[in-house]
Amino acid sequence: MACGGGRGCVALRGAQIRDLLDAKHNVLFDCDGVIWNGETAVTGAPEVVSLLKQRGKRVFFVTNNCTRPRENYVQKFSRLGFADVAEEEIFSSAYCSAAYLRDVARLRGKVYVIGCGGVMKELRDAGVPVAEEEDAEPGASIYTCPLDPDVKAVLVGYDENFTFMKLAKACCYLRNSECLFLATDPDPWHPLRGGRVTPGSGSLTAALETASSRKATVIGKPSCFMFDCIASQFGVDPAHSLMIGDRLETDVLFGSNCGLTTVLTLTGVSTLQEALAYRDSQEPQQKNCAPDYVMESVADFLQALED
Amino acid sequence: MAASKCTRLTGALSRQLLDSVDSVLFDCDGVIWRGDQAIPGAPDVINSLKKNGKRVFFVTNNSTKTRQMYAEKLGKLGFDASADEVFGTAYCSAVYLKNVCKLDGKVYLIGSNAMRQELEDVGIRPVGVGPDPISGVQKDWANVPLDNEVRAVLVGFDEHFSYMKLNRALQYLCNPDCQFVGTNTDTRLPLEGGKAVPGTGCLLRAVETAAQRQAEVVGKPSNFMFECVAGQFGLDPERCLMVGDRLDTDIMLGSNCGLKTLLTLTGVSTVAEAEANQKSECPHRQKMVPDYYIESIADILPALQA
């Protein structure tokens, strides 16, 4: 391998940064905690993205956040000062879940969705039929859920309107072993501003897995599907690709699983201490959560890019 | 030891077994009733046991009824029973929070009115019961107003479970000093009217996953359910029989507490599953092998009436 690393949490600085960038044609960025935090861009991030593209690198954004459709992400990029980020460069778990259902599962039927507006929009845009949620009739009970016979898949993601009724309905559909069971992402909680958290898709998926005694196929990081999605559209070679993220158990593990070189940035969820603990662990699965490199912030790339 | 287990309970053995115990603990769903129907012969069995001088208790993971509500259901179905003989998880969770957690303050409750009632009866104030739909936007949710007297989160069966409730529980549980208790881990409700409905275990898993914390679980197979009964009635485990339909809750509880165990086949588990556990080398599975099994508890009746 051109660049060491070896899951060693090597602090990335100076000439090393230039060498790393020279060896990698494609740079994949997680979003939350890497290039922005909430509605604030990480200082220097817009410049880094711009300069990478000027240097001929291909840049992709890979996010487990399924709450927005891609066109909303394009607007957010623009709002936060990132110039010319195209919809095609954005791979969200909502977009990839729709792509999976359409292209991999080749779904012939409807999908029952526990999810938010962002997921619904991507499914509609991909032409995947969604089972309509009827308004709860008075007297509707968890013991009598009217089922749509055309439902051939259940997709669970972040849903602020999650209710027991939805859980019961999804569980009924999943009793048919032919019905697919997908989850947008496994994140148990999502960070909000100021170190606060909110329950994530992973917690809703856990409820449904427990109810149905089935395991969901997870689309988002650390599963490789989002990388497969990028590779199938853009012919991306893992050996020449860099994954930059802030969450060891999702971004870094994703990078490891897909054969990418991984960089942890310390502007988000995970800490250097946690990275070192994974590095020193004896268990292979834990070791895969250790990044090759660590940097304080993506702004550290600027010194190498600005000459 | 293994060789003497998983024996079919026949007439003579029934007599012997009953003579060797003073108290019989029954699970409810799948053992003495199914939904709102008594298992045929079950009321006669319970009533005869009492006439024979045995003490009878009812031990259930179901958190949706108070002891009083159970007593009413038992009465309606022909069982001679009183509220203080019933140990459901609504009651036992309240006792657990009071006596084991030594809770001094309020509890954020994801659960039923029955749970709220049992908590209030032991002097604990619950908050949060009832519908709780989402409002506001994402950035508001981490800032939901928290009651600073809440010292514990308790999760039981709640058909009003929602994202907002999950969120509130998470916010409370971000404080490591906030205690975390669940009534039980059963993944499905028993078949009320024939449909399997997601159980408390699902709701608890959602909260545990979001909070990245494990709850202390009160219900079977946790020993606490037996300790609760034994503590109030001075029971000797060796003179107790646990009768249940589930190997992973009822029989496991019996094994862990040193009770004699009887599996009835009117509910969830089968003899084949019990025998597979018996043959396995796994110590955990060995605890899910009953001493005896019987088609239905009604089959004990002849031995009682002899």
In the CATH hierarchy, the third-tier topology of the largest domain in chain A is known as Rossmann fold
- Please identify the oligomeric state: heterodimer
CATH topology assignment of the largest domain in chain B: Rossmann fold
Q: Unreliable runs of chain A, pLDDT <50, ≥5 residues? A: none
Structural class of chain B, by secondary structure, is: alpha/beta
Distance between the termini of chain B: 30 Å
Question: Keyphrases for this structure?
Answer:
heterodimer, A: alpha/beta, Rossmann fold, 2 domains, seven-stranded parallel sheet, four-stranded parallel sheet, 18% strand, globular, B: 306 residues, alpha/beta, five-stranded parallel sheet, elongated, hydrolase (chain A), HAD-SF_hydro_IIA (chain A), phosphatase activity (chain A), Pyridoxal phosphate phosphatase (chain A)
Provide a descriptive summary of the structure in words.
The complex is a heterodimer of chains A (307) and B (306). With 307 residues, chain A is α/β, with parallel strands linked by helices. Chain A folds into two domains: 10-64 and 222-306, Rossmann fold, CATH 3.40.50.1000; 106-218, HAD superfamily/HAD-like (Rossmann fold). Chain A is built from twelve helices and 15 strands. Chain A has a seven-stranded parallel sheet with strand order 1-15-14-13-2-5-6, sandwiched between helices. In chain A, strands 7-8-9-12 form a four-stranded parallel sheet. In chain A, α9 (248-258) links the parallel β13 and β14. The two termini of chain A are 26 Å apart. The mean pLDDT of chain A is 93. Chain B is an alpha/beta fold and 306 residues long. Chain B folds into two domains: 7-61 and 221-305, Rossmann fold (3-Layer(aba) Sandwich), CATH 3.40.50.1000; 103-217, HAD superfamily/HAD-like (Rossmann fold, 3-Layer(aba) Sandwich). Chain B contains 13 helices and 14 strands. Chain B has a seven-stranded parallel sheet, sandwiched between helices. Chain B has a five-stranded parallel sheet with strand order 8-7-9-10-11, sandwiched between helices. In chain B, α4 (89-100) packs parallel to α5 (113-121). The radius of gyration of chain B is 20 Å and the shape is elongated. The mean pLDDT of chain B is 94. The A-B interface holds A 38, 67, 142-144, 159-164, 167-168, 171, 175, 188-189, 192-194, 196-200, 202-204, 206-211, 213 and B 133-134, 138-139, 141-143, 158-164, 166-167, 170, 174, 187-188, 192-193, 195-199, 201-203, 205-212.
